[in-house]
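With this grant's support, we have settled on a layout for protein records. An illustrative entry appears below exactly as we store it:
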Amino acid sequence: MNIHVRGLATAFLLFAAGLLQAAEMPVPPVTPSLAAATKTANKSTTDHSKLDALKGPFTSGPEVTKACLSCHNMAGHQVMKSIHWTWEATSKTTGKTLGKKWAANNFCGSPLSNEPRCTSCHAGYGWTDKDYDFTKQENVDCLACHDNTGTYRKMATDAGHPLYEDRAYQPMEGPPGTKQLKAPDLTKVAQHVGKPGRDNCGNCHFNGGGGDAVKHGDLDTSLKNPPRELDVHMAKDGANMVCSDCHTFNEHQPSGSRYAVNPKDTHGFDLPKDDHNRATCESCHGLAPHKEAKINNHASKVACQTCHIPEFARGGVATKMLWDWSTAGKMDADGKPLFIKDDHGHLKYSAAKGDFKYGENVRPEYKWYNGTVEQVSIIDKLDKYIGKDGVLELNRIEGSASDENARIWPFKVMVGKQAYDPVNNTLVVNHVFGDDDTAFWKHYDYDKAIKAGMDIAGLPYSGKFEFIETRMNWFITHMVAPKEKAVPCAECHTRATDGRLASITGVYIPGRDHNPWVDLLGGLAIAGSIGAGLIHGLVRIITRRRKENVK
């Protein structure tokens, strides 16, 4: 009986609150989404195949770049100021130097000492070691972003260069046998360039962390040509958008950053005169996109993605959820590196990298976020980043219900186990790639690999290492489901221990939380309503009888 009273009390108060809000704030008109506008083909005003500078033949990427710069004479300078080139970024909230070079992660680790492998996703050519010349414009890779043939690919182990001749390639973790890789026709590619498409961005960002879907959870090759059920923005029968429609560029500087995600866009619709950053939902959909005022009211404390991305890794490609480096280095009965696949064909153990666990259709974890991410760098002392549970939080998400700018955001939480220096209390650089006798993937000796990595990086090392459990939070912002597939209200407004917002603190959530005063007031309100109804009915009966007696 008490449960029913509580439920009725909550329902009554919600109903009353809704009436009051509706009376005070009229339902805003529905404004057509900018993203929903008919997409037209991005046709260049130049036929590059007719330009003398691009007649070729070209034998290397830098040769193509020199030809590009003969017309686009400021492009090189612009790219060389971007994070795609420098791999460095300064946090606007913490002032810390981050970027791929310095920010710690629990995937492949640091690119330092591993440049020829990691820089296959650098927007340039030839970054083989720490002495790379960042001032040479001809080393900027124009084709990685602007190839429109779909044939240009950087070679995984060639420091950002594509293949220049056909080659047989044996993937380290693949099945026995080699793959025949075909070199792109650089002249043809140079003559067929244009604005970046999903393939261009995806060649790196879909494969972050060393493979398809490994890192982000909401970015993988299923988004190259997704159905509307997977992503309403990128689907051809949806908005058919490309990455740069949201992640706009100004002088080759991209908008949107995982180091400084905008927690709450209060600007709304993007206008070229005063806002060049469309990497928020509100930029296209406005501040009040729903017909119902109550749902719009949620947006002050709940990020759009929280409701509109019910699960990530929904496209049939599993994402890594755990990576344990501490188990790496095992050999099989023949003394060869051990590789084991699970029943789904995923590599669950690699001698080169350790143990893995995967997930598909994963429900995000939810946290308050106010715009500040406390990202650990490879030079930080770890004390203040280790929680009471002994886990190192590599990028702690700041925020609480009391923060004016904080909203509830969805995250993929990646769990790892990685090496650190217990004496200096810092993470270590692990030298994994190379032909030398210290590279871990050659000889599987952590002592040699870590010492070499720290020496090359120029960082202090005590000579001792241990392994520590780590966590890393990844914002979930892609794979937006159709509106009819949004998270149902009852999955958050529930007292079930597995409710989506069960771990969210500092806020009263109707249907989830119990407050005796609310129950009492609700019960009194219901009793009063019933009593008032009974009295009203009784008065009418008495009045009617008196009238009848008068007649």
Summary: The two ends are 46 Å apart (CA to CA). The mean pLDDT is 90.
